[in-house]
Every structure is written in structure tokens, then in C-alpha cells.
Amino acid sequence: MVRRLGLTGNEAIAYAVKQCDVGLVSAYPITPQTIIVERISDYVANGEIDTEFVCVESEHSALSACIGASLTGLRVFTATASQGLALMHEVLYATSGLRCPIVMAVANRALSAPLNIHGDHSDMMGSRDCGWIQIFAENVQEAYDWTIQSFKIAEHPDVQLPVAVNIDGFTLTHCLEDIEVLEKEDVEKFLPPRKPIYRIDPEKPMTFGAWAMPEYYYKFKLQQQEAMENSIKVFKQVADEYGKLTGRNYGVIQSYGLEGSKVAIMALGSTCGTLRHVAKILRETKGLKVGVIKLWLYRPIPEDDFISTVENVETLIVLDRALSPGAVFGPLGSDVASMIVKRNLDFRLLNYTYGLGGDEVSMDLADKLLRLAVKVAEGVKPTSLTGYLREVV
Amino acid sequence: MVTIREVPLGEYWGPGHSACAGCGPSITIRLILKALRRPTVVVTPTGCMEIVSSSYPQTAWGIPWIHVLFENAAAVASGIEAAYKYMAKKGLLEEKVDVVVIAGDGGTFDIGIQALSGALERWHKFTYICYDNEAYMNTGIQRSSATPKGAATTTSPAGEVIPGKLEYKKNLIEIAVAHHIPYAATGTIAYWSDLMEKVRKSLEADGPAVLHFLAPCPLGWRFDPSQTVKLSRLAVQTRYFPIYEVENEVYKLNVKVAKPLPVEEFLKPQGRFRHLFTPKFKHVIEDIQKNVDGNWKNLLEKCTVEK
């Protein structure tokens, strides 16, 4: 049975966590994530879930407590944003290195200084090599759906890696949407209790977190890399299964309007909705054909799926919502460039930064960008191949 | 009082670890593990004892053991303790499990103090044990806030004008007691029976417990490795390191030192204090003695019960 609820992104994630039989949640408040853990605290306080909620004194301790609980075999969740994610930085690596399948919601927010509580992807991009699977949700429905799927992906025996579900600060965390939710029994069927391969067990004492000399260290790291690669297959299986259950079909990448168009814009998260909407208007009213490509899965980067998606694309504008000061391209731009070079593809790549500290892409700005894309595709030389979107279009 | 006959023969701290000869922390851990009462999980932050015991693919730990990072042992333990609470609630736990942190002074007094304070305030039922060898020995003898005044370390060297570390060490037990926890105590290996009893008592406490065990380090303190236990005893007999416990905020002196030796007796065998025995820096010894006397007096005033 389909049930509809009006929830914000934060509330939708908390609601998903409530349905996933999570053993422990440990977190520390930070805007714009706080409402997730406030709602979870409410569920615990009202006896709606048996989850242990450990309200710690810092994000560093939050993820550390999650590691402890995850190693005992429990299903574990946390949430953070911005400075909190930055404070967790070293723990992020420990989590993936210890192969703890923890799921964390990241309410993407700018990093200080100057202090800014609004949305951008600087926080997660600063941790993009931490060995976590990284998913970006476009809207509240996706935030709910990805949270449930993430546990299943993370805990799969071939994966055993932590997953970060990214939602844009305020744009998704605080926006109310009418979404479809599953019944608890359906979630239980989809997501049976976690079956850890290894766990702390006094009956079978094990050492966790041994240190490794050079001859072993790289082998541990290569196993992590292998698990990352495995996760794409698992990710797709889980998305298929979830699609059958809900009718909402997810995958690693989503594209719009690539048929008959040789130019596309690529981005992560909520901006993709705006881009798609404006692309549709331009296509229907002006006959301008610009495709929009969205990565649901950012780490591991779905190389094969990207390559097949851009098969007919000649011009691609990649949008990065994080600044990589001193670099040629931003994080996503660099990822795309590396795939192009590896596959020896020949197409024009532009990479603009946008949306820093909540500087949202309005329909007007999206319209300018798409028109620019069309011109570039027609052979007009853009004023700049890189730069800040608002300044270059 | 634990008698020698009561000490279990089983060893959970395996031979073959790579600690130095005469390592005080290693002896401390061996005693701690023999005092455990039931299945136990040990969390150790980065430090000497972590390094000497867990070089992959070997391990010295005969019980479940976890190392994550340097400053988060108390937080990791919080998560484990809460996880067991959840399992007990859900009927998934056959036997109760104790959670113990065994951490050095750097991981406790300095970088781990926030996580420790948080875990105590949240009232996780666990025992936090600091083996205090009074500096960052693993990285080559750098000062910590547990290093005593006058000690030379590689970051508080004794120079021509500066006589080693200028500051007194923190009082860990007072910090712990400020959280109103049910049990906090000091101990050291020369008083092994007292130490083991305190481990057991801490586990039976109705809430978090903190144990502060002084653990002489031949390498960092620069003394002959055969003298570890003697140094441990001298620390107590000079009143440099009082042995006491605080049970539900009631202080008890466990080792009376009626006729204390002068603090020089503790300082003299140690190379880290050698510079103090020169005319130029002799006044520092007087300062240390004054500080020892003052601390002892303060402690006695708090000790309403004598054992």
C-alpha cells in the first residue's frame, strides 16, 4: 500500500531510519542536519523505536561511537554537515578502513571561513577520497529512498563499506515535499537484519584495527578499492529490487533529453531538478535541445555508465558545487576529465563552479547556462572554459 | 585483598609483543587482564601499547580488542557499551560484556580528554584505565600534560637556561571526580594486589570508572630496566604518586606513607631528572618536594576514610 506524507528532507531521512531497525544512532547537532537527529530522538523518547541514541560531545566522537557499535555487529546511522564532516575527517578513513557499513546522511553545507550555514558540496568534496560510497539525492523522495537502499548496499558481503547520503543543505533538508513512503513490513522484507561477517565476539576474540607495515598496508587498501568496484554491481541490484518494490527506478546515473542533443549539463544533487525543468521548457518552447546528466552515485564514479551515457555528446558542461582553489577543474570536472582521457574520447569539456554557500541556481541562471551550452555546441567560443557560473554566463 | 593464590594463571596479554624490557605499561596490562571478571572488550587508542601489541598479522590480545584512532577511545567504548545495551534490550545477548579502555597518558590527559569527559558525562558503564608513563614515549619521549615538572623530554629538554618541563602535571582523578562518577582510583604495579582489586572494583561500580595507573618507562624515564617495580614503589614511598580511591565521591587513602622518603629518591635513578642534580637547577627539586607535600596535604584533607 502506498502512503503519502509531507516531509522535509531531514524528516524523510529520520523516517527512513526509523523503518530500518537501526541499533544505534550517534550524532552531534549541526545546521542544517540537526532535525534528522531531533526526530530520531523523538522516536526514541516516545518508545517508537528501540534504537540506542548516543548524543555525543562532538562529531569526531559521534562517528567513533558508531564505529564501536558497528563492530559489535549492529546497524548504525549518523548524520552531519559541513564543519562536522570536516571534524570527522580522520574518522571517515578509519570507518572505511575498518570496513564498517555505517550509513551517514550529510546535509551538504559550506565550510568556514567565512561562516556560512547554507548549501554547497565543499564538505563532502573535501572528503571524497575517504573510502565511502557517496550518493547524492536530488529531492526529498530520493533522500528517503536512498537512505533505505544505502543500508542494503553498505552491508552487502561484497561491499562492507560505509555510505554517505548527500542532501543539499536547506534546499532539501528544510523543504517540505509530498513523498511516498513504504510500510514498515515492506522495509523489513527489503532490508533484513544485518549479518556481519566479522564482529566483536568474546567467544571468538579478534583484534580490530591492527597496524600494518608497508607489505600489508597496501593490500588492505587494495581490498577496499576492490570493494568499491564491487559496490557498483550491488548498487544496481539493490536499486532494481527497490524499483520493483516501489515503482521508483534508480540507478547510478540519470539522464534527460540526450536523444537528439549533442550538448549536456552534468551536476549532482538538487540543482539537477532545476536544470531538467528549464531544459524541458527550452526544448518545448524554443526547440533548444540540451541534455541533463545527474550522477546518483558519485563514489565509486560509475565510469562505464557515464561513458555509455555520453556516447553522442560532443559538448559537456560539468557543474561543481565546490571550489578547488588553485586547481584547473573542480572535483566532478576532474573526475569527468579523467574518464575522458582514460577512454580517449574527444569532446569539449567545460567546468563551472556554482552555488557556493547557498548561492542557488535560479531558473533564470539555469536558462542562461543552457543557452550558453547551445551556443558552445554550435561552435561559439565561450568567454571561459572554467570559472564561477554566475560570473561567466 | 587479592592474594597471589587468587591471581589467575591464564594470560590474556600474550608473549611475543614488542614492548621494551622492563616496560611498566606492559606489566600493568598483564595485571589488568588478570583482574577481569567476565567477557570483556578492550579499546586502546594509538600509543605504545597499541603499537607493541598489534602488528598485523600478529596480536598480543587474547580477548576482543579494538584500536581506532588516538583521541577517541572513550567514544569508541561508548558505542560498544551502548550497542551491548541495545542487544540486552532486544534479548540478543547471552552473557553481559564489560568494556574497558586501556590508554596512555597522551591519549587520556591530552588529545583524548574531550572524548573521555563526554563518555563520563553520558554515564556509559565502562572502565577507563590510563597507564601513565608521563610522556609520548611511542613517538620518542615528547612532553604531555602528564609529564611532571622538571622532567626532560625531547620537547621539554633540559637546556642551559630551562630545566626541563616547567609545568606541573594535571590531576586526572580530580577531573574524573568532577563528573561525579561512582569510582576513580590510582594504582601502580608495585602494589599489584591493590591495582587488581581496583580493576575489579571499577567493573562492579554502578557507572563509569576511571583508573590512573602510574607505569614507569625505562626508555623515557631513563633508568635501568631491572628497576621498573622499584621506581613504581619509590613513586609511592616518596608520596610523589599517592595511592587512593574515590568511591561515590568519598576519598580513601589506600597506601599510607607514614615515613616518606625525600622526593630525590624517586628522581635520582631517572636520567630525565639528571640535570636537576646540578647546582644551577637544584631549586627545582625543592619546588617538586613542596608540590608533593602540598598535594599530599590536600589529599589527606579529602580522605575522610583511611584503609
Overview of the structural elements:
Helix content of chain A is 42%, strand content 19%. Chain A has 393 residues and is α/β, with parallel strands linked by helices. In chain A, strands 3-2-4-5-7-6-13 form a seven-stranded mixed sheet, with helices on both faces. The longest helix of chain A is centred in the middle third of the chain and has 33 residues, at 214-246. Chain A is built from 14 helices and 16 strands. Chain B is α/β, with parallel strands linked by helices and 307 residues long. Chain B has one domain: Rossmann fold (3-Layer(aba) Sandwich), CATH 3.40.50. In chain B, 35% of the residues lie in helices and 14% in strands. Chain B is built from eleven helices and nine strands. Chain B has a nine-stranded mixed sheet with strand order 2-1-3-4-6-5-7-8-9, sandwiched between helices. In chain B, helix 3 runs parallel beside helix 5. The N and C termini of chain B lie close together (11 Å). In chain B, 51% of the residues are buried. The model of chain B has no long low-confidence stretch (mean pLDDT 97). At the A-B interface, strand 3, helix 3, helix 5 and strand 9 of A face strand 1, strand 2, helix 3 and helix 5 of B.
